[in-house]
């Protein structure tokens, strides 16, 4: 699959069921696909994205050795989901409540009569019926959605348990284990602490769910990924966020570990080359993020992708660009007008700027 101007296109599909699932095998097919993309479709290939499994990661390393100019990246929606997984690996009282919530969902979904009673309670209370959601590892944001759905139904569930507890327990039959489990579920749902903890978990998962949706979009660019990661780090570093220190540190460590593994230069340059951002979101007190340091990052990426050193004219252009000077000012670039038109026409803003400033394809300073 390729993404051209933020639209995905499915290309060739290969049956490799009889082959060893190794990095070398994957590389062979990736190189075939690159040849097809560049020679048959005449697409200018910039990057290759895969998940972060061991063989996929190794394949990307081998691909960079073959094609030094190519950018290789992880699927960042998958990475966000792995951060959620790290959050749930911490053994705290809050995570125990999440386990209880999943038991509640499974119990209702596995017992027809109690589930029917819940549906009747919903219809009477809300006028509509919503399904309980059981999270799945491959369904990103599903833990957040599961918690949110339980909270959406909190009033109906608590009223049902308060008024019909005996009927709910009787509905599971006369086996001791089933009755004991039903009583356990009723006890969980009767505790205000359970619902309060679910609200806290929702607050923790919400920024991660938003990040997953942002990074899985067709128009998710590298600058969007880095700004999203920065926002997550800010959210979980906020002392006003009600979160246990061990959970906070787990999320921050997970973010730092994933950032440390990626090609940081191209992500930094993607932010700098977003004309609405440039240097505005960088900490100028960090010596690695000064204008001079970022020029060196730009130079490294340029040499890698263009295979030549940037000239003095490009250096001067970079300086003017990051300082919003001349043709690179917001007025000269018509940034507000382009933003308004993009919002009206549902276009990606940076994409619209690219169309306006495409200019002469041979001008490397553009």
Describe this structure in words.
InterPro entries: RNaseH-like_sf. This is DUF659 domain-containing protein. The chain has 366 residues and is mainly α. The chain folds into three domains: 73 residues; 179 residues, no CATH class; 104 residues, no CATH class. The protein is 63% helix and 4% strand. The protein contains 16 helices and four strands. A two-stranded antiparallel sheet has the order 1-2. A two-stranded parallel ribbon has the order 3-4. α2 links the parallel β3 and β4. α4 packs across α8, α4 crosses α9 and α10 packs across α12. The chain is elongated and about 80 Å long. The model has no long low-confidence stretch (mean pLDDT 93).
What is the ordering of alpha helices and beta strands? Answer: EEHEHEHHHHHHHHHHHHHH
Shape: elongated
Average predicted local confidence, pLDDT: 93
Measured between the Cα atoms of the first and last residue, the distance is 28 Å
| Range of strand content | under 5%
Number of helices: 16
Radius of gyration: 26 Å
Major pleated sheet: 2 strands, antiparallel
Count of discrete domains: 3
Low-confidence stretches: none
Total beta strands: 4
